[in-house]
Amino acid sequence: MENKKQNKIAIISIMSYYARQIFAETKPFEFRKSPIKNDLLNKKIYVYSAKEDKAIIGYIKVNDILHGNTNEILRLTGYDKRSDGNEIVDYYGRNNENCFALKLYDVTEFEEYLTLKDMRSISRNADMPQYIKFIYENDPLYEVIRKWDEAFSLDGEICNNPTKTKQLILQKGRNR
């Protein structure tokens, strides 16, 4: 029997403070202590804004993964010349040899956020990642997230009645 590869959605957890910078397009890199897998390059990665929002607030795409020590990453990303470069040193440590910077593009915020509360109304086991999580097509959240993206991405056509659209998407997810 042939092993069919399942479609999946990737969700990355980012603290709200940094997620806001990403969607304001003032933070062109996401800094991590471990890389994402290469098969996620140039694919949508949904952003779960942890702490304050507790919601999927949009998506990003990554076109390159930079790797090096703390000083190399600062130099490669231009953060050695930025006033907030000290945040990167604080995160990695001064002499970390294993630093990663995800180069972001196609950063797209949702008009309406998909909250953890809404996701748990679809699947009681809905939990969001500390780092990255995959939702597979057999999970009701898979279709909810895809439909949410279609309806509320600021890069597409915004729906006329967001409240009604939100209710319809969630109701279909609950009935799945």
Q: Overview of this structure, please?
A:
It is a single chain. The chain is an alpha+beta fold and 176 residues long. Helices cover 33% and strands 31% of the residues. The chain is built from six helices and six strands, in the order E-H-E-E-E-H-H-E-H-E-H-H. It has helices spanning 16-23, 70-77, 85-92, 116-122, 140-152, 162-175; strands at residues 8-15, 29-32, 45-50, 55-68, 99-115, 132-136. A six-stranded mixed sheet has the order 2-5-4-3-1-6. Strand 3 (45-50) and strand 4 form a beta hairpin. Helix 5 packs antiparallel against helix 6. It starts with 7 loop residues before the first strand and ends with a helix.
What is the H-and-E element order? EHEEEHHEHEHH
**Global morphology:** elongated
What separation lies between the terminal Cα atoms? 28 Å
Average pLDDT value?
Answer: 91
As a percent range, the share of strand residues is 25-35%
User: How would you describe the oligomerization state of the chains in this entry?
Assistant: single chain
Number of helices: 6
Name the strands of the widest sheet in spatial order.
2-5-4-3-1-6
Radius of gyration: 17 Å
- Give the number of DSSP strands: 6
Largest sheet: 6 strands, mixed
**In which range does the helix fraction lie?**
25-40%
The parts where pLDDT drops under 50 for at least 5 residues are none
Structural class: alpha+beta
